[in-house]
Structures are given as C-alpha cells and as structure tokens.
Amino acid sequence: MTADTTPLPCCPQCGQNDTVRPVSAIVQEEPESPLAQKLAAPRSPRPVPAIGCATLFFGTMVSISAAIFAVGLTELTATAPRTSLLFGVRDTSVFTGIITFLFVFVGVHGMFVWRQARLNRIFRRAFVAWHRASERWQQLFYCARCDGLFLPGQTTLTPVDQMQTLIYARRPPSQATVAPPSGAEGG
Ligand SMILES: [Zn+2]
Fold this sequence. Notes:
Layout: E1 20-22, H1 23-29, H2 34-38, H3 53-77, E2 85-86, E3 89-90, H4 91-138, E4 141-143, E5 148-150, E6 158-159, H5 163-168
Antiparallel strand pairs: 1-4, 2-3, 4-5, 5-6
Zinc ion binds near residues 11, 143, 145 and 146.
C-alpha cells in the first residue's frame, strides 16, 4: 500500500536507487522470468502428520507377533505340567503372551510418540527460521545494475545465488553502524 510513497533505498554498491526494485515486486510482476525464479520466496516447511490409524495398526501387529512368539517360546521352555489348558496352551503362556503384547504395544507406541515429538521440535525450529527468512525476504531489494541483493542498511551487496544464505542467516547481515534516517527529499 505504502510501497509507492516510500523512497527506494540506495544500492550499497553503486549508491543509486534508479535500478533498485523490491524482490517481492519482481516475483509478483514477472513470476516466469529466470530472475524471479531465483528470487522466489522461501518455502514453508511441511508440518508433521499426526500419528494415525496406520501407526496404531502397525503397533498392534508388531505386538501380536511378539505375543505369539512369546507364547511359543514359553510353551517350549515351560516345564509346568499341562494341567490347565486354554486353547491348548498353558496358563503361564497365555499370561506371558498378554504381558508381552502390552509391553511391546506401549513400547512401539511410545517410540512413535517420541519420534513425533522430535519431528515436531524440528518442524517448529524450521518454521521459526522460515518465518524470519520470509520477513527478511519481504524487505529484500534487487539492483539490476549490479545484479545483487541487499537489505536496507546492508553495507555490501549479496549475489543473487546467495539469497538463501542471506535470508536464513542467524544474524542480520553487516549493517551500517548507524542507519541514517532515510532522506525524505531524496528521489
Ligand atoms: Zn547497484
């Protein structure tokens, strides 16, 4: 809205602003141009999908397999007399099977929850970095004469192919010691 009234900042290399344009304007106005392709806005990270039915199913299957294995193993090693049988297996084997099922199910599910939490943490960090990069990208200017990018106040020009490094940098790029108040009368 105010883009037309705000004077464009001067390029740190040539010191002029006659060939300076906001990067967002270049991308908006000529999205198909090779330059705009290079200057495209940073992409937001994909959110982590929630733990769904497939995960629950997988956990159940693994637990059942482990339980069957445990029952079989107990049957083979058990020395107790076959006094009380349930479906042809001993009580102790059934008990072992149930306990194995519960432990493995909780274990597998816990592993997924832990993995989910870890991925969510990574996503949050990536999202914060992307948000900051987007804000910087919005303030980015391109000088056609020098074929480089700069943020207002930046003392050096950044090559176009280093845009990602510039916008994702942890600290803002080298700023002028004291940013001079933008001259209102300049044009
Ligand atoms: Zn320039």
